[in-house]
Amino acid sequence: MDNTYRGHRVAVVLPCHNEEIAIAKVIKDFRKAVPAAQIFVFNNASTDKTGEIAKKAGAKVIFEPNKGKGNAVRRIFADVEADIYIMADGDGTYDASMAPTLVDKLIDSRLDMVVGVRKPEEKGEVYRFGHSFGNRLLTGTVAKIFGAGFSDMLSGYRVFSRRFVKSFPALSRGFEIETELTIHALELRAPYAEIETTYFSRAKGSTSKLSTYKDGARISKAILRLLIRERPRQVNLLLALSMVIASFVLGLPIIFEYLQTGLVPRFPTAFLAGMIMLGAMLVAVCAVILDSVVTGRSEAKRLIYLSVTGVRPKE
């Protein structure tokens, strides 16, 4: 029996936390959709029978004690060896039958990532308004900062090339991992695509692990952190400009008063304005230095990316 799909080793990787209700069906559906794929369940600190059920269903189960989807994905990318990776959640909300379509798109177009854009099968609880609005808001924010291209940045249904996986640092711990994956692709300028897939309601009795406000705040924090890390020149120059304006607002009246009277009656304010201007100059210098550091780091990431062979159609 051929254990490859179109000549490529394929792995289905499922990060799971307390998904005992749905995991067996998810494994069954992916095995039916991609029979040649090896299925891995990364049991992310589950307290139920997720691991036992997944093992009985025929998946290879690996326990990840550090709770958080980002921790599970980091372990997946480090431990699993394949040419193509299909990643989905273990809650049964993603359409496993679309996996071959996503993989074919990756192979035929020589891409590094294909994202399954979620199209809810029905309105209401399948895709709550808060989640939908938050996704649009955060996706739009990332598009403004790092460049447009993604319409569903927070989708957990993705197909990756080995080249993308092995060049991804995976620093996030929780649900902000999808944001980091998206920004990594944009910063690396890796070729990617999106394909619309059906988004199902969760199995009865299963509950979502996503908190609209808590995880939304964590994702926003991750975007800010990545902005500071990947765009230090712009951030620091904006801060320096703000400090220059503040220095002028405080100092100009004192300068005008000195020119008229020859006196500096508000010396503490004048001293503060001078210190703010000096701080602005230091921040501007830091912007130049940090920009050089980021350029060097980007070049290193690019070299690592290029050191791994990409996916291409077999002759």
Question: Topology, pairings included?
Answer:
Elements: E1 10-16, H1 23-33, E2 38-44, H2 50-56, E3 60-64, H3 69-79, E4 84-87, H4 99-108, E5 113-120, H5 129-146, E6 158-161, H6 162-165, H7 177-188, E7 192-199, H8 212-230, H9 232-261, H10 267-306
Parallel strand pairs: 1-2, 1-4, 2-3, 5-7
Antiparallel strand pairs: 4-6, 5-6
Helix pairs in contact: 5-8, 7-8, 9-10
Name the descriptors.
2 domains, 14% strand, alpha/beta, 315 residues, Spore Coat Polysaccharide Biosynthesis Protein SpsA, Chain A
Structural commentary:
The protein has helices at residues 23-33, 50-56, 69-79, 99-108, 129-146, 162-165, 177-188, 212-230, 232-261, 267-306, and strands at residues 10-16, 38-44, 60-64, 84-87, 113-120, 158-161, 192-199. The chain is α/β, with parallel strands linked by helices. It folds into two domains: 10-229, Alpha-Beta Complex (Spore Coat Polysaccharide Biosynthesis Protein SpsA, Chain A), CATH 3.90.550; 232-305. A seven-stranded mixed sheet has the order 3-2-1-4-6-5-7, sandwiched between helices. The longest helix is centred in the last third of the chain and has 40 residues, at 267-306. The chain is elongated, with a radius of gyration of 25 Å. The chain starts with 9 loop residues before the first strand and ends in a 9-residue tail after the last helix.
Class from secondary-structure proportions:
alpha/beta
CATH fold assignment of the largest domain: Spore Coat Polysaccharide Biosynthesis Protein SpsA, Chain A
End-to-end Cα distance: 20 Å
Share of residues in helices: 40-55%
The radius of gyration over CA amounts to 25 Å
CATH class of the largest domain: Alpha Beta
